[in-house]
């Protein structure tokens, strides 16, 4: 298998011009300094002082051919900021490469070389079918040595190493070192199931913890880069957070799963479909959402413009809405993702309480112009503002502070302390041990489950 696959794996070298201001310089010591004498003697012995000006920096990595016409996959960080990219084939043929496109979110790049003859290529496998314990083989260019083969097993799947918004890495103990970046991870059928991207290593060398971008995530990225020169990801238009056991209990869910919608973007696909803050997304396009972090990846992989069913938990029951997906990149360019989340409304006009009302260790008051000025709240703030927090309470441990605003209780808008108190009483009467509150803090919305005792 190694003999068959090695010809499709390439070495990638890049050159980058470093400006003089970023290039290392020689210290300028005063006349008569022993350090000046030392450096003068050193440079005289090695051909003189270096001349100021731009310099060439080089780097090495790996890649693999996915199309006989010359398309090559590698990591974005291998070719980032490169002025020139050279691909060296297994027979030592060196070809200049063009950067077709790159994606920083998944650290994937697509290159193109021109060749007079068809190049050896490898095919994609199904990374979702791989199991922990399956044997795998990695081929790459560690430390610039050229095609090296290592083998191991899949140690874990769906690893989140905080490298990007779509982390879903395959972890392997096949030796991966510097220079292996961008190389393929093969299953025992000789199909690519991952792109070797990162290692965990205190020393810089392999200690048996390597990470590969799964093929099923990479394939769509590569298709978009080849077709459009950029990615085209699906966009739902929600900000989400995890469903904790307390939040699940407060909402009447039988277990902690799904993705809780903290806010909905004005003008986004979710808003148009009727998704509201407080909904828990249980499935998207008939794919179950067990953990919150699954949703962004599944949405991103879904075709832009397609209409898909989204199952949500709302008011104690399941509901399904149809959402027509937008494009994430267009939303970023238009500034929709940077806009303030919409504020849930509520009835107003009640007279403010002079001293406030105590609930759950919190002192709360209706929003007034004086309180809005004191806590620097937006003019259109609705809800009840927290003016004091008992330190020895669940609310304090959950991070609530004076100036935070309670906007909803159990998915119902509130604008007076009495409405908050009524909602808490209703939750107690229904046998709940915790209550779900939507809080506006630091310019954004989030949900918290607070204990009722």
Strand portion, in percent? 35-45%
- Principal-axis shape: elongated
Number of strands: 27
Determine the number of helices (DSSP H or I, runs of at least 4 residues): 11
Round the Cα radius of gyration to an integer and report it.
28 Å
Which regions contain 5 or more consecutive residues with pLDDT less than 50?
338-354
> How far is the first residue's CA from the last residue's CA?
64 Å
Give a short account of the largest sheet: 7 strands, antiparallel
What is the fold-level CATH name, i.e. the topology of the domain at 127-228?
Thrombin, subunit H
Summarize the structure.
The chain has 453 residues and is α+β, with helices and mostly antiparallel strands.
Topology of helices and strands:
Elements: H1 2-5, E1 9-18, H2 34-45, E2 55-67, E3 71-74, H3 76-79, E4 84-88, E5 94-103, E6 108-112, E7 135-140, E8 148-159, E9 169-172, E10 184-186, E11 192-199, E12 210-214, H4 215-228, E13 234-235, E14 238-242, H5 245-251, E15 259-264, H6 269-273, E16 280-284, E17 287-288, H7 294-301, E18 307-314, E19 317-324, E20 326-327, H8 328-334, E21 357-359, E22 362-366, H9 369-374, E23 384-389, H10 394-397, E24 405-409, E25 412-413, H11 417-429, E26 434-441, E27 444-451
Antiparallel strand pairs: 1-2, 1-4, 2-3, 3-6, 4-5, 5-6, 7-8, 7-10, 8-9, 9-12, 10-11, 11-12, 13-20, 14-15, 15-16, 16-17, 16-18, 18-19, 21-22, 22-23, 23-24, 24-25, 24-26, 26-27
